[in-house]
Design a protein that fits this description.
This protein is mainly beta and about 140 residues long. It has one helix at about 75-95; strands at about 20-35, 40-50, 65-70, 110-120, 125-135. It is built from 1 helix and 5 strands.
């Protein structure tokens, strides 16, 4: 069956955001599971402010997705500690209130924080922008 996708032949993917601190706003937040069945929080972030890229492009409006694990089941100690550290850093940086150990993923919507973006190759060797750490604005 023939399929037509308008604009695909001219589409050029953007280079990943360069390593730097960016002010980001959460435009989407959802709970999901990893392929291994672990709970995770998926944050869709829009850049509100940040340094011009080496090609002189403005990063404002660019989007990035972050995955924050919520479960440490089956992890070794170091992996569990790093997972909890990132989750706690994320909650504190976006000023998300805890009710005991519970939070609502919708509370992230429209909240801003600073995100340290680093570029790492994905499983296929393609450079991808990833959030290394957050800080409160």
């Amino acid at each position: 069956m023939k399929v037509s996708v308008t604009g695909i032949s001219d589409f050029q993917p953007e280079a990943p955001l360069e390593k730097a601190w960016y002010q980001v706003c959460v435009v989407g937040a959802e709970l999901a599971q990893t392929r291994k069945g672990r709970d995770q929080l998926i944050l869709d972030l829009a850049v509100e402010d940040g340094p011009a890229q080496s090609d002189d492009s403005d990063p404002v409006g660019r989007q990035i997705r972050d995955y924050v694990l919520l479960s440490t089941d089956g992890m070794q100690d170091i992996g569990a500690k790093l997972t909890m550290q990132k989750l706690k850093n994320t909650l504190e940086s976006f000023e998300i209130s805890l009710d005991n150990d519970d939070f609502d993923s919708d509370d992230f919507l429209d909240k801003s924080a600073l995100a340290l973006i680093k570029v790492k190759p994905d499983n296929d060797g393609i450079p991808r922008a990833n959030v290394a750490q957050y800080k409160a604005v």
